[in-house]
Structure to design on (96 residues):
């Protein structure tokens, strides 16, 4: 992964943790990363691709909050996460 994609993904994860997985926008990411909005679009051709990268990172890092939100939105990659991790994320989302 290029350095710029890493910066963008990191900013997207931060925005998602603050605003929620379903509320992330290119503008928010660009503001957080201090880059042009077009750079987000250039490196991640669509929000679907960026969301997929975010869910993959959430699974890798066991970010239960973001993964739980992705599960609630029935994101395909979130649904493919290991069962034990999905259960923990759902519990975290429910506040259990």
């Amino acid at each position: 992964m290029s350095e710029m994609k890493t910066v963008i993904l990191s900013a997207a994860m931060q925005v998602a943790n603050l605003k929620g997985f379903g509320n992330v926008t290119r503008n928010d990411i660009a503001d957080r990363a201090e880059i042009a909005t077009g750079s987000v679009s250039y490196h991640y051709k669509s929000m679907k691709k960026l969301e997929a990268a975010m869910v993959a990172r959430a699974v890798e890092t066991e970010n239960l909050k973001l993964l739980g939100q992705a599960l609630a939105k029935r994101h395909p990659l979130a649904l493919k996460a290991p069962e034990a991790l999905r259960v923990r994320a759902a519990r975290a989302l429910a506040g259990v």
